[in-house]
TrEMBL record:
InterPro entries in the cross-refs: A_A_dipeptidase (IPR000755), Zn_M74/Hedgehog-like (IPR009045)
Role description: Catalyzes hydrolysis of the D-alanyl-D-alanine dipeptide.
Site (Transition state stabilizer): 106
Phylogenetic placement of the source organism: Bacteria, Pseudomonadati, Bacteroidota, Flavobacteriia, Flavobacteriales
Signal peptide from the UniProt entry: 1-22
Cofactor(s) essential for the protein: Zn(2+)
Protein name per its UniProtKB record: D-alanyl-D-alanine dipeptidase
Binding site for Zn(2+): 133, 140, 200
Length: 219
């Protein structure tokens, strides 16, 4: 009888180990699932940080389209892109700089509108393929100094010429250093650079997300 009780206790103990471990696994899996689903959400950058400056070019006519294609200026991105961007900005702030944003997530309808105005893949991504901007993983930006003045990057935003390329050889030392600061910090925070546009950065694995037409409300 004593042996049976001992055996029962032992079996219960074994069962507890297995079930407790499996409960732990379930909760970890759920946690993982939740963080993945959270990562697909679009969120507004200003709700996560007040340390960015904005010049949302496509919410004005001051852009290469000469057209205002957003009803209002907001910077929505997927949560993982926002986290990487905030991390990058913290690193810049330690050095006395801040990020100024030109464009963020771009709903597919806006991409179509841009394509209607300039149907040239050299300047606008074809909406039938979409871009990482349409996936919430791309951001266009520059850096400003402590007085809010933009650093010299050699060309303006959306300058379509070889001079805007990271590898363009005949830029000044200052421009080279500024582009390099931007690029190395963005890469170390989870982004990839885009060779022909010094201002464009894609969050790593941004191409894995789906193209979206989610729109934000203008207040
Ligand atoms: Zn871009």
């Amino acid at each position: 009888m004593i042996f049976t009780v001992k055996a029962l206790v032992f079996v219960s103990f074994l069962f507890c180990i297995v079930s407790c471990q499996s409960q732990n696994l379930i909760s970890k899996t759920d946690e993982k699932k939740n963080s993945i689903s959270n990562d697909t959400l679009f969120v507004n950058l200003k709700e996560y940080s007040q340390d960015f400056l904005y010049d949302m070019k496509y919410a004005t006519t001051d852009n290469f389209l000469n057209a205002k294609v957003y009803d209002c200026a907001e910077c929505f991105l997927r949560l993982k892109t926002i986290r990487a961007l905030v991390e990058a900005n913290e690193k810049f702030m330690e050095k006395g700089y801040k990020i100024k944003i030109f464009d963020c997530y771009r709903p597919l309808d806006i991409q179509k509108k841009m394509w209607e105005i300039v149907p040239n893949p050299k300047y606008v991504a074809n909406p039938s393929k979409g871009s990482i901007h349409n996936r919430g993983g791309a951001v266009d930006l520059t850096l400003v100094n402590g007085s809010g003045k933009e650093l010299d990057m050699g060309t303006g935003f959306d300058f379509f010429g070889v001079e805007a390329s990271h590898d363009y050889p005949t830029v000044s030392h200052t421009v080279k250093a500024n582009r390099n600061l931007l690029k190395t910090t963005m890469i170390s925070s989870g982004f990839n650079s885009f060779d022909s546009e010094w201002w464009h950065y894609n969050v790593k694995s941004g191409l894995n997300d789906t193209i979206s037409n989610t729109k934000w409300e203008c207040k």
